[in-house]
Amino acid sequence: MPPLKPKSKLTPKTVMMFGTFDMIHEGHVNLFAQARKLAGKEGLVIVSIARDVNVKRIKGRTPRNNEKQRQKLVKSSRLVDKVILGALKNYFARIKTLQPDVIALGYDQTAYVDKLKTDLKLAKMSTKVVRLKPYQPKKFKTSLLLK
CA-CA distances (angstroms) from residue 140 to 2, 62, 143, 144? Predict the structure, then answer.
């Protein structure tokens, strides 16, 4: 898939998101809607699903649904254009290949942000990293809903 190159604020963009998405709740739907707005009607929203082994390593728990099930859940959203499984080791390879204009992070995604920005700079990529706004985080957060 060739990367889109924006010419103005109105030009469609490729927006990439990352996450576990162990269940889809209103908070996730809101994140997808924010990403869609950033991409524009004709833009692309790509979601990278965290691999099971990486969820276990980073969050210290095994996801309730396996990576294929989580991928299928996210694919069911009409706000998302493409859903891929994340890399097992080199997370940045997918970013470099897909060349997103924007990487949209959830309000609670704090791990590895500095590394991401450094890797983008080293790769001489102009990808913008933005933080999406929370949507009722005391109500719609997977870790709370799974209790």
Answer: 35, 20, 9, 7
Q: Encode pLDDT of 26-82 as tens digits.
A: 999 999 999 999 999 899 999 999 999 998 888 888 889 999 999 999 999 999 999
The predicted model scores a pTM of: 0.83
- Indicate the residue type of 70: R
Sheet holding 128-131, edge to edge: 82-85, 44-49, 14-19, 102-105, 128-131
**CA 140, CA 147: separation in Å to the nearest integer?**
12
Q: What is the largest CA-CA distance in the chain?
A: 46
- 116, two tokens: 């991401």
- Which helix (H) or strand (E) element contains residue 59? helix 52-59
